[in-house]
Design goal:
The protein is built from 46 helices and 27 strands. The chain is an alpha/beta fold. The longest helix has 20 residues. Helix content is 41%, strand content 13%. The chain starts with a helix and ends with a helix. Helix 24 runs antiparallel to helix 25. The strands form six sheets. Strands 13, 14, 15, 16, 17, 18, 19 and 20 form an eight-stranded antiparallel β-sheet that branches. Strands 5-6-11-8-9-10 form a six-stranded antiparallel β-sheet.
């Protein structure tokens, strides 16, 4: 029987799902590492019994089981050629909290930040704090023994382990927790696999020579952040094995074992009291890496909570990140490196004194050319910049990338300056620079050479550098992995790092736990080669991919997709803020992540043998629920703009497969509305008939937007002001296709508001924005529109007489898609600098003092703002806040809401209606329902306003209309 037939039989027996189609095998063939290994299947289990069945099936068929949560592993731990078991969707419960014992029990798919949101009301938290805390999961943190920025104060994940429940390699359930020595010995008696494991550990570690060899060869015990093989040295603390502690917990051995010993299903953790609330960050700026690291020895004499470092390569990447450029506010000059030292106290005066003492000590020792104190909410902004480090490195244009071959070394703190000096000299010998960032206070740095792994010579260097660094780390008795684990990238160096004798011990321990070789094969013992199974094949002939849009800013669409390094920022949930990625938030399926879309596109553009490489049903499936919200364009630290990739895909795919009638109707919406507006009442009646909606594939629950009785263009022609003084000058109002046919009242409000504030409003004959064509992949039509509009406005508008728009998705095409479509790039660039949302224009004029509160009433109003996704990504909701906050007695707040879910035609399409509404339910709808009836809701997007009404029965208004009604 073929493996697929047997997988089908297995699938039928599971409560969860088993996937072995080409798309899912592609999506799960990578994680956040450089590796690519296609699994035979992907399982998304619902129950522990499902996992047990999967393990037994794998044992029977001699294939591997690879546990996976968020898939953010940097060393290749979560890729394998057997069955990848994804517990991130269904194993997400917080099972118990014990306030007295200060413990919490969770399933492995609980996100670290979600756990701390649950714990906060109890005044405790889970300390380990990785850069991926808004999407990494506790199961993965246990697998890797994660630590992060706070380890110098709160320790690593292993320190927090109380109990681990899981499944052994025979599918049986097991519990590992703290035992007395007598209880441990009792566990060695019997014939179960659990008994045999305890007996093996006892027999192996009771030998004095074995204990001595471990002590001699393992990393220095002073290095708290260490993951080198299995943590057998931790077990030596027990009085059973030469130590002094009367208890022992094998769960601590499992922490850092990368799913190679037990499949974890439940974890009990110790939690700590919340940290002091008064914290101050001192950001020290340096002229050299060496100086920054030497200063750590001085700084760590103070009572620091974090001690983190970023070099200039990462800082430079923030300059091109829409999300993180705003977090550069604290920088002084162009430092080669910065250190972020954080002090904290329950007393604000004490915190200030600590920070002052730290600054004085650094100055006394001549460290840092600038020492900046950061307070309050600004600290989190600086931390966000540091957290984005890995993702930001993905934004580097071209094939030279920060390779993660040596990115996790840790040495004793006192050895750090000397170690780095030797490391830097070694890199110079290889003709290499390096990127430095991370946890300097713990003696750990994430060091990355910049390599092009598509070149055979650089792939060889990948190994050479890794080998030389292993030798250097061994010299200092350091750990080759401080927190990211061994995985594939470091696994084969374990024999050298701990000695062959100790390595043979690890192999015997693996055999005791996993006699059938089922659990995550190829990691830690019998590791795969670190320079094989890469995402990119070295020496390959680079595929030539012709595109309609201009992707020269990424050196082509393939490299645009390759920017995704798998860091998984797109898997964050609504509680983390932002909007990325609404389809993942609605479904919790990996297939609906930004990462999945970029990975799938990379895979098929690279390996497809079709003439039109875009002509893949798998690509259609992975892009289907992308709503082109543009959140990824700003929130993805690697700048992966999936909306742009999707537009290109749809164009190329539909060239091969045809454009559907419904897509044609939606794309040509403005042209059809031009005809329909001749008889709007008849058009509105017909378009909302159930038979018509059914024939067009429109959800019956939706009302098709109604055409206005008169277009805005016609209204304007009869109302434009002539022979009148306009003290504030001229503005060109972009009469977009939504305002012109549907939202005429908003166009009128904008005209009257601007006019009464002293602006001459001009509207010229121009084309629609092209937004509907872009959303459906009609790029040829969109290009014609872009060229026409750029040609119309290039010599017309200026900074003094700008083009302003009412509908964000329409006006922002000038700043985004037109730059890829227009033939006259110079003119398109010029026009883009003079095109603004109406809110941006108002904010500018308020700052310049041309618009003042004197023009508005003093009536009290409370307003809440929902920002349009394109506004959040390409502009700023803060401009709306400034505009509506102008009247003296307006109280304005911004909803922390994601995508509304309508996304143009997406929410009207019957097959997408439920997902669309779920997107709204994720954050926006509950917030709107909780808003008092006397509070006005502002939403600039026409889709947003319709979705808010459909989901909550509340009427939202455009900010322009609200401000118009505030005029005196």
């Amino acid at each position: 029987m073929s493996i697929n037939k047997e997988l089908e039989q297995l699938s039928a027996s599971l409560e969860g799902i088993l996937l072995f189609d080409d798309l899912h095998k592609t999506l799960y063939s990578t994680d956040a590492s450089v590796y690519r290994i296609r699994p035979k299947a992907v399982a998304v289990p619902k129950t522990i019994e499902d996992i047990s069945k999967l393990i037994r099936f794998a044992a029977q068929h001699h294939i591997s089981i690879t546990p996976r949560t968020a898939g953010t592993s940097l060393a290749g731990q979560t890729v394998g050629d057997g069955i990848v078991v994804d517990v991130s969707k269904n194993f997400t419960k917080i099972l118990n909290f014990d306030a007295v014992k200060k413990t919490v029990t969770v399933q492995p798919g609980v996100i670290r930040d979600e756990l701390n949101l649950f714990l906060k009301p109890h005044n405790v938290f889970f300390g380990p704090n990785t850069s991926t805390t808004n999407r990494c999961m506790i199961g993965g943190m246990v697998g890797n023994n994660s630590s992060g920025t706070t380890s110098i104060r709160y320790g690593v994940t292993r320190d927090k382990i109380v109990e681990i429940k899981g499944l052994l390699s025979d599918g049986s359930e097991v519990v590992f927790n703290e035992l007395t020595s007598a209880e441990f010995i009792e566990k060695t008696k019997g014939d179960t696999l659990e008994n045999k494991i305890y007996k093996s550990l006892y027999d192996e570690l009771s030998v004095k020579a074995t204990q001595d060899e471990i002590i001699k060869e393992f990393p220095k015990p002073e290095i708290h952040r260490r993951n080198t093989g299995y943590a057998v040295d931790i077990l030596l603390k027990s009085d059973l094995f030469g130590g002094t502690e009367p208890t022992i917990n094998v769960g601590k051995l499992l922490c850092g074992s990368e799913g190679t010993l037990v499949f974890t299903t439940e974890i009990t953790l110790k939690v700590d009291d919340l940290p002091p609330v008064h914290n101050i960050m001192v950001v020290a700026h340096y002229h050299s890496i060496q100086e920054s690291l030497e200063s750590v020895v001085v700084a760590m004499k103070h009572h620091l909570y974090t001690c983190e470092m970023i070099d200039d390569t990462i800082l430079d990447c923030t300059k091109t990140s829409r999300e993180h450029v705003k977090n550069r506010f604290f920088l002084v000059g162009e430092p080669k490196a910065i250190m972020m030292f954080e002090v904290a106290s329950h007393d604000p005066e004490d915190a200030e004194n600590q920070a002052t003492a730290l600054v004085a000590d650094l100055e006394k020792n001549n460290f840092g050319y600038a020492l900046v104190k950061i307070y309050g909410a600004d600290i989190e902004k600086v931390n966000e910049l540091r957290k984005a480090g890995l993702g930001l490195l993905g934004s580097i244009v071209g094939d030279d990338k920060a390779a993660d071959s040596i990115e996790d070394t840790a040495v004793e703190l006192s050895d750090l300056p000397a170690y780095i000096e030797e490391f830097s000299a070694m890199m110079l010998r290889h003709g290499q620079g390096a990127i430095y960032y991370a946890h300097a206070g713990a003696g750990e740095l994430h060091l990355r050479p910049v390599l092009n792994l598509k070149k055979t010579s650089d792939l060889k260097l990948f190994r050479t550098i890794a080998t030389d660094v292993a030798i250097l780390v061994k010299k200092y008795r350091g750990s080759l992995s401080g927190e990211h684990g061994d995985g594939i990238v470091r696994g084969e160096f374990i024999p050298f790092m701990i000695g062959e004798t100790n390595y043979e011990l690890l192999k015997r321990i693996k055999l005791a736990f996993d006699p059938n070789s089922v659990l995550n094969i190829g990691k830690i013992v019998n590791a795969l080669k670190m320079d094989e199974n890469h995402r990119v094949v070295s020496g390959r002939v680079e595929p030539e991919i012709k595109t309609f849009q201009d992707f020269s800013d990424s050196l082509g669409i393939l490299r645009a997709a390759e920017k995704c390094n798998g860091s998984g920022d797109c898997r964050k949930l609504p509680s983390a803020g932002g909007a990325m990625c609404p389809s993942y938030r609605a479904t919790k399926n990996e297939k609906e992540t930004t990462r999945a879309r970029a990975n799938a596109l990379r895979e098929y553009l690279t390996y497809s043998e079709k003439e039109n490489k875009f002509d893949q049903k798998e690509l259609y499936e992975v892009f289907e629920l992308c709503v082109s919200c543009k959140a990824c364009a700003s929130e993805c630290p690697s700048n992966v703009d999936v909306a742009t990739l999707k537009a290109e895909f749809l164009y190329q795919y539909q060239k091969a497969n045809g454009f559907s009638t419904r897509n044609k109707i939606f794309a040509h919406n403005a042209k059809l509305n031009k005809m329909g507006s001749l008889f709007p009442s008849i058009t509105n009646f017909i378009s909302n008939q159930s038979l018509v909606k059914k024939s067009m594939g429109i959800a019956s629950e939706r009302e098709v937007p109604l055409l206005a009785k008169k277009t805005f263009k016609k209204w304007f022609e009869s109302h434009k002001k002539q022979n009148q003084d306009f003290p504030n000058g001229q503005v060109y109002l972009f009469n977009d296709e939504f305002t012109n046919y549907y939202d005429v009242n908003i166009g009128i409000d904008a005209f009257e508001l601007l006019t009464k504030l002293g602006y001459e409003v001009l509207i010229v004959n121009h084309e629609e924005s092209g937004r509907t064509y872009l959303s459906k992949g009609f790029l040829e039509e969109a290009k014609k529109i872009a060229n026409t509009n750029v040609n119309i406005f290039k010599d017309l508008i200026s900074a003094k007489a700008p083009l302003i728009g009412i509908e964000p998705s329409a006006i922002l095409t000038f700043r985004d898609e037109y730059l890829r479509l227009a033939d006259n790039k110079e003119a398109a660039e010029k026009v883009s600098h003079c095109a603004f949302t109406i809110e941006e224009f108002f904010k500018r004029e308020i700052i310049d003092g041309k618009i003042t509160p004197d023009s508005f009433s003093e009536e009290k109003k409370e307003i809440k703002i929902h920002g349009h996704c394109h506004q959040k990504s390409l502009s700023s909701v803060e401009a709306t806040f400034a505009m509506l906050n102008l009247p003296t007695n307006n109280t304005v707040t911004i909803y922390n809401s994601g995508c509304c879910g309508m996304a143009g035609s997406f929410g009207y399409e019957k097959e997408h209606y439920q997902v669309s509404m779920q997107m709204g339910e994720d954050t926006l709808f509950p917030k709107v329902r909780a808003t008092a009836q006397n509070v006005e809701i502002a939403a600039a997007g026409t889709s947003c306003r319709h979705q808010i009404f459909d989901g909550t029965s509340r009427e939202a208004q455009h900010p322009v209309s609200i401000l118009r009604n505030c005029l005196r």
